[in-house]
Amino acid sequence: DSGVTQTPKHLITATGQRVTLRCSPRSGDLSVYWYQQSLDQGLQFLIQYYNGEERAKGNILERFSAQQFPDLHSELNLSSLELGDSALYFCASSRRPHTGSDTQYFGPGTRLTVL
Amino acid sequence: TQLLEQSPQFLSIQEGENLTVYCNSSSVFSSLQWYRQEPGEGPVLLVTVVTGGEVKKLKRLTFQFGDARKDSSLHITAAQPGDTGLYLCARNYGGSQGNLIFGKGTKLSVKP
């Protein structure tokens, strides 16, 4: 158990819909990262927050957005869903804003299926 | 973005065999991490290598960082079914960004 929690574990929805994925980081971790894992693209970085502020952006679509709340939990919002958005979405957390020798701890992921 | 190429993509072996998987890049990186991901779970960090030529051991797993810090290998001795999983190498994006860049992984299956 990494200490990072993600809900829900599984999510099945239809094209065009909007969903929200939730992540609670490890106690004391201020940095939260979102990654998407698909069979063809592998594990790709989407966005990072540190202590409530957006820190870095990766290959995140404009239909996707995220935020980190004062209690440090984070939500990833996916809208106008397409079949290609079906993937595993992972949240990771770390103590500091940039990894260096700091470890990122990954949650168990949310499996999103868009039908 | 500097890519990390992992090989082989798939590996299926019998219990007790030895194996090596590779992670290569055309660029030099300051450090490299190896993760193992089991089905239905998130990646778990196995080791971080930092110094060129560095060798780290974790029980039956031996990790090596190339002298030029452009490549790394993971060797497993006497593989067991519990070693089954996806092995990912990753590097830091760099600068002030904390995110990781991952290779696509080697999917290992160890049959009893």
Keywords:
A: 115 residues, mainly beta, 4-stranded antiparallel β-sheet, B: 112 residues, 6-stranded mixed β-sheet, 5-stranded antiparallel β-sheet, 11 strands
- Give the ordered list of helices and strands of chain A: EEEEEEEEEEE
Structural class of chain B: mainly beta
Major sheet summary line of chain A:
7 strands, mixed
Helix content of chain A: under 10%
Summarize the structure.
With 115 residues, chain A is an all-beta fold. Chain A has strands spanning 5-7, 10-13, 19-24, 31-38, 42-50, 53-57, 64-68, 74-78, 87-94, 105-106, 110-114. Chain B has 112 residues and is mostly beta strands.
Structural description of this entry:
The complex is a heterodimer of chains A (about 120) and B (about 110). Chain A has about 120 residues and is mainly β. Helices cover about 0% and strands about 50% of the residues of chain A. Chain A has strands at about 5, 10-15, 20-25, 30-40, 40-50, 55, 65-70, 75-80, 85-95, 105, 110-115. In chain A, the strands form two sheets. In chain A, strands 2, 4, 5, 6, 9, 10 and 11 form a seven-stranded mixed β-sheet that branches. In chain A, strands 1-3-8-7 form a four-stranded antiparallel β-sheet, with no helix packed on it. In chain A, strand 5 (about 40-50) and strand 6 form a beta hairpin. The radius of gyration of chain A is 13 Å and the shape is globular. The mean pLDDT of chain B is about 90. Chain B has strands at about 5, 10-15, 20-25, 30-35, 45-50, 55-60, 60-65, 70-75, 85-95, 95-100, 105-110. Chain B has no helices and eleven strands. Classes of the chains: A mainly beta (about 120), B mainly beta (about 110). At the A-B interface, strand 5, strand 9 and strand 10 of A face strand 5, strand 9 and strand 10 of B.
